[in-house]
Structure formats: structure tokens, C-alpha cells
Amino acid sequence: MTTDPLRVLVDVTTWVSGRTGVGLYTERLLRAWLDLGTRDELLCASNVGHSELAGLPVIPVGPAMPLRAAWMQSALPLQWRRLRPDVAFFPNYLAPLHAAGPYVVTVHDLAVVLHAETFPWRKRVLQRLALPHLCRHAAAVLTPSESTRQDLLRLFDGIDPARVVAIPLAPPEYLRVRPDLERIAAIRHGLGLPARYVLAVGTLEPRKNLPRLLAAFAQVAVGHPGVGLVVAGGKGWRDDGIGAALAASPVRDRITTVGYVGPEALRVLYAEADVMAYPSLYEGFGLPVVEAMAAGAPVLTSRGSSLDEAAGGAAVAVDPLDVGAIAAGLDQLLGDARLRGDLRERGRLRAADLTWQRTAERTRSVVANVRDHRAPGAGLA
User: Fold this and answer.
1) Euclidean distance between the first and final Cα of the chain, in Å?
2) pTM of the prediction?
3) CATH 3.40.50.2300 corresponds to the domain 7-170+355-371
4) What HEC string does 38-66 produce?
5) Contacts of 241 (CB under 8 A, 6+ apart)
6) Domain 173-352, what architecture?
7) pLDDT tens-place string over residues 233-289
8) How far apart are CA 322 and CA 318, in angstroms?
């Protein structure tokens, strides 16, 4: 890793309160980048400003503009030209269509193309029109998995494979430490958790596949009378079907919905779960899989996808379109304490291979390579 200081303009518009997904990626990546001890200058720009970005200067970009896309195409290019960074970094798909210099963009998944029906029409139109152009003109494109890298190269023409680099994500460090018993008891009581439970984590949206998981849980509930299902996640888009499936479940009285939860409650939810079930239809990486593993939860997830890749063979993998297969996986895990113990151990080992320090080192190396006119992936282990 080159030690010559970098001057990088970073879009931090996703670093907001109650952040999930890309917001957490941006936060954890930048904090780990700062911890590398380089003398890099990270110039963090936002359309609204974020005073909570401790240790990172957020550049005010003219008057506040609540519409991120409008800000990015108008005010940000002016700031970009004025600040003259070595490279600009856009960690959330979009960048100015008329770039003021070399840039690196992270494409977390291609769901907007592969599962367009699960997105609001505005996001669908914006990303499907802009994303291919931005990827073709980027100095480097980052993806969180090889699966997503291959999706991008298959779906978008005219992109040099050497400019697309897969850099896996990681669980946060706090999840690797089990909460103390007093904290566990308090959060269990506060959330009304059953003694044993299957945990489902994620924003309530169609591609999380919750209706099929609900149907699968209903199939196995009779054989495991002491087990409940806990659903943790904030409201997303097109979640009417999820609400209807919850209401219609024949075992609704054994399902607990807790909404969006903070980091400490999430750590308890993972650590205490008999199974963390994440049979999503599509993800670019699937952070909940490695988060659950870091916290010691046995995982059930989707076969033949980035989720299977993230799990690294340390999970029960099933066909997410087959309710019977999901039910069989749940039944196997709930009925076999030895298997759960084995997956807890293997999951922790898999999660230990993934750290935000390593993600930050590799991301910084790509940015440095772009500045120094080398192949983006040069020197990456």
C-alpha cells in the first residue's frame, strides 16, 4: 500500500441517522480508513451537511438541497473543481454525469436491473439510465462480491473488466464480543423475545423474501412448539404484501415484529438467535449473513448467490424460491443442536477473515492506483 498521502473527495450523503445498508458501509469504511494512520485528506461532501461525522470535515456545498440527485449534478461538480482532489469517491452508485476528474464508484448490487419490480419507479429510472454511463466512465468500479462483479460485466456493455474490483465487506467489531448477561436480559425483556427464535433481519421490502420465510416457518412451527420468529427491520417500499402475509400467517401469535433496532439490540438479537434466516432473493453481498456469524448465530441463506459467497460454506444454503426448501433448512437447524454448534464455530471463523481494516486498505489501494495511473486492482492480495 502506497504511503503517499491522498486527497479524496467523498460523497457522504448516506451518512444519516438511522442509517442502514450503504450508510453503514460508508461510515465503517471511512472510520477504518482513518484508522490506517495515513495522512490522507478525506474531504466529505454532503447536500445537507453532517455535524456527526466526528474527525471528518464535511464540505458545505452551497445552499442545502434536499434532493440528492439534483445536488450531485449541479452543486457538487463546482465544489469538485474548486477543491481539486486527486480522486473522487462515490460509495453509493451515483456520481455527477459530467465528472470534474477521475472517480471511483461503488456499485453494491444490480437489483435495480435484475429485480426492477422491487424498486420505486423514480429510483428505477434514475439508476437504470445513469448507472451504465457512470460505470463506463469511472476510473474504477468497486463491488462487494465477485458475484456482483460478474453481474455488472454481464449486464453492462463496454466496461473493461480490469477496472472492476471486488472488495468484500465485513461485520462491525462490536458484534464479535458477546453482550453481558444483564444487557441480554434487559433487551430480551424490552423487545418481548421468545425463549427460542428464528431471526429475520432486513428492511421490509419484496426482495428480502419475507412472505416465503413466513410460509416456511408456519410449516415447521408445529414440530418446534417452543420456537418463535422475530422480524427486525424498518419499513421499506412495496411492503403491503409483507404486512398481508404477516396478518394471514396461521402462527401469527408466534411472530414478534420489533421494527428497526439499534446496534446494541441487534447484537443481542443475533447472539441469542437459534437461527438467523436470510433467504433473500438477491443481494450484492449480504452483510446480515456475516454480521450474524460474527455474533455467533447459525445462518440459513440463499444458495448460488453473493450470500452463499459471503457465507463461505459456513451456512445452510437453500433455494430461496422454494418454501419447502426453506422449511427443510429451518427444520434441520432447529432440530440439530450439534449442527447449530458447528455452524456457530465455523461462522465465527469465516467472519474473522473479514475486517473493515482490510476493506479500507484495499479500497485505498484502488484509489491510489487510480491517482498514480495504474490498473485499479494492481497489488491487491
Assistant:
1) 11
2) 0.89
3) no
4) CCCEEEEEECCCCCCCCCCCEEECCCCCC
5) 206, 211
6) 3-Layer(aba) Sandwich (3.40)
7) 887 666 677 888 999 999 999 999 999 999 999 999 999 999 999 999 989 998 999
8) 8
